[in-house]
Amino acid sequence: MSAPLTGVTVLEFEGLGPAPFAAMCLADLGARVRRITRPGSAAQSPIDRDREDVALDLKSPAGVEAARALIAGADILIEGFRPGKMEQLGLGPDAAHAINPRLVYGRMTGWGQTGPMAHLAGHDLNYLGLTGLLSMMGEPGRPPAPPLNLVADYGGGGMYLALGVVSALLAARASGQGAVVDATMIHGASHLATLFHGMANGGRWQPARQANLLDGGAPFYRTYETADGRYLAVGSIEPQFWRNALAVFGLPEMLDAQMERAEWPAQARRLAARIAEKTLDAWVAAFDGVDACVTPVLTLSEAKDHPQMAQFFRSTDQGRMPLPAPLFTPPQGF
Which of these three, 144, 172, 192, is where a domain ends? Predict the structure, then answer.
């Protein structure tokens, strides 16, 4: 099956983080991505793969004119500059749509195009802090734990930009009219957390860390240290899975009090003590084939060799890397 974005041309303005990640996703799906870079710039990240680099000096009239010519032949434009930068270059949405009315103009910002902080710099940790999500992560009595830069940068930012520009492209091909897609990391991360906003609004989420169902407060949804200093992930939320897990752990009497929050700390201590009696490999063997949502916590290198994970990696000149996602296959019989 041909890649779904074959024939789509993306013009990317060189940047860092989530905007390049969105462009990578589009390239993975078959789009031709032409990237305007600064003279002398070179790709330094795996996220920068599969680009056709065009070095332009956007501070010169000739460079801007060359960029305008590239805009004329693009389906999608992606930029991740601070608000107003593209307008200063004479390449903002109004100017771009005057050249190419069908263009989907994708913008990536951390704080948004407007507002009192729009002109300020920031990183994933700052965006998560402002959304309230960072306050929910980590252990009680300790500083909130940074969850890598996946939630705001790539989840709330890059993936929303990729989804937005592809959706707008579908509409543009039907109507002949392009659009501006404004993806903002604090917005996307907040949207990712729709479930938790709803739980908090309904009084079903406590502000204290590890006092809730999905933040490590529940004994059946957290990680535990094994005898060899490794970790086991127990995600047995549903009663049937918790029953199966407790059978293997040898603690069936804990089942009846699963949703008794007052019992959670004591249950977690009992389970921690039991899990600490055996190595990670011993627990993995004990749960082999058991439908209990109990799995090992692997390292990155271990994950690539796991029999379930290996199918989603490929060998590249940068080592084994994840395959483009998601996978596309034609219906059976075609």
Answer: 192
pTM confidence score: 0.94
Residues 6+ apart with CB under 8 A from 223: 216, 231, 232, 233, 234, 297
The per-residue pLDDT for 318 is 87
- Exactly one of 97, 123, 191, 197 is catalytic; which is it? 123
- Give the pLDDT confidence score for residue 331 in this predicted structure: 86
Using a 10 angstrom Cβ sphere, with 0-12 exposed, 13-18 middle and 19 or more buried, the burial of residue 42 is exposed
The one catalytic residue among 153, 182, 187, 215: 153
SS3 category, 231? strand
Residue 83 resides in a domain: yes
Phi, psi of 198 (to 5 degrees): -65, -40
Q: Retrieve residue 322's tokens.
A: 């994840």
Distances (CA, A) of 2 to 30, 36, 164, 329, 331: 8, 26, 22, 9, 13
Distance between CA 312 and CA 295 in Å, rounded?
18
Residue 218, phi-psi category: left (phi > 0), alpha (psi -120 to 50), beta (remainder): beta
51 & 161 share domain: yes
Assess whether 256 carries a catalytic annotation.
no
Pair 21, 168 in one domain:
yes
Look up the CATH number of the domain holding residue 256: 3.30.1540.10
In the residue annotation, 182 being an active-site residue is answered as no
Residue 333 scores a pLDDT above 80: no
How many C-beta atoms surround the C-beta of residue 162 within 10 A?
25
Domain that holds residue 278: 222-297
pLDDT at position 44: 75
19 and 83 both lie in a single domain = yes
Q: Please report the pLDDT score of residue 1 as a whole number.
A: 63
Does 203 map to a domain?
A: no
Distance in angstroms (rounded) separating the CA atoms of residues 39 and 236: 53
| Ordered DSSP codes for 146-186 | P-TTIIIIIIIIIIHHHHHHHHHHHHHHHHS--EEEEEEHH
